[in-house]
Amino acid sequence: MNVFVVPASPKTGQATIRSLLDHPSQPHVTGVYRDLGRVPAKIKDHPRFRAIKGDVADVSSLKFAGADAIVSITPPQYSESKPITRAREMAANVKFAISRVGCSVKRLVYVSSIGAHLEHGTGEIRTNYEAEQALIGAAPEVVFVRCAYFMENWALRNTHDTLLKFITKVSVKDVGRTCAREALATSSPMRHNPYIFNLYGPKSYSTKDVHRAVEDLTFKYNKVKVTLVEDEQLEDFFAQSYRPPTAELFVEMTRSLLPGGIVAGNMREGYLLQRGSETLREVIGDILKE
């Protein structure tokens, strides 16, 4: 079996490739890279892995001949002036590229987000909504893995204590394992098509849990600082890292995830739930090793 991961450079793509290469069924894996210089040294010489050049923004560059299943990801759109429109275009490119290879591709697995069933009011999550809409019917079997907030994002920032306390998180490793498993289940029965489920970690964690884990793993007791960003400070906070319109999209996404927000109020309704196994301490331990 040959599974393509497109694009392969995002962390979720890398985790999916590693899980596929470690799988006992020994599938062949093809990573699609806009820049072949970004192929990780650890996998580029693996006997069951190959890297090919391709860009989801350029449909003519996408060559899926020989693929049995495809794992697709919307790459970050931080520098785009119209990120939501661009996300739909990229997904449409993947769908068209699949159509060009006839019946070869039997299953498409898309890495999505909780809240992707909502058309408005979710900020950056709307990129996943648009991509899902474009990818329906892209292959005989379509799977949408709607992931919770990534634990690894804590390596960069804690945006709001309430957000972290009440929103379930998931690790990138668990996302990779899940996408690999779903891709390798090609031709097995699905309850629905598209088959949609939410993916969470083993449990919920608060900012205090993060604080305690970092202190325990670094032995820097009473030296790790956690700063709370209030709701009215979100615009200024995200403006420090992103340009418009990305900053505004992250503000809206954050508010949608808070208790009382549109995603928080809907994310458990009507969808199947799967849980990963990677714990917070394991994730933070890996981050500290990097």
UniProtKB/TrEMBL annotation:
Domain NAD(P)-binding: 9-180
Pfam families cross-referenced by the UniProt entry: NAD_binding_10
Protein name in UniProt: NAD(P)-binding domain-containing protein
